[in-house]
Amino acid sequence: MRGRAGGRGRERCGVRPRGIFRSLLASFFVLMLCFAASPRVLAEAAGAEAGARLEPLDIVTASGSHPFLVEVMRTEAERERGLMFRRSLPEDHGMLFDFQTARLVQMWMRNTFIPLDMIFISRSGAVVGLVENAEPLSERIISSGAPADGVIEVNAGIAAKIGVRIGDRIRHPLFSK
Fold first, then answer.
1. pTM of the full predicted structure?
2. Is residue 176 part of a domain?
């Protein structure tokens, strides 16, 4: 026996069309609540790893003071991972690596998808080295060129945009004023 269009025929499988819509709508809301409640999803949307705290940092150049929010990598494990596997970084965000002692810093872009500028800093907060537009996914060694206590990674092009030069200042609690 065939059902009639618009009639009881659509209900023969035991599910009413209105019930399907309600179930889909309820599933959608549950999914949205799970998505919104996930700290990892929220952090990645903000450009930070889950659990990472963003700290204010200013790069002071001849063109003025430029505010950024940075994730600070203080441990060896954090520094090793850095921005690896990230697909994006908000324009006013970055990552600050604290090496805790001055040394010649060598880095690479393995598993890093975002082109970056690297700004190397002394403990006094002075810019001591600058590498612009580091090539994503490259294993080429990038050197600070001078002893550095830290490095800030920002999106490629930012250093040129704000006019970063050797001798410019970084304001952050890790660096003396």
1. 0.72
2. no
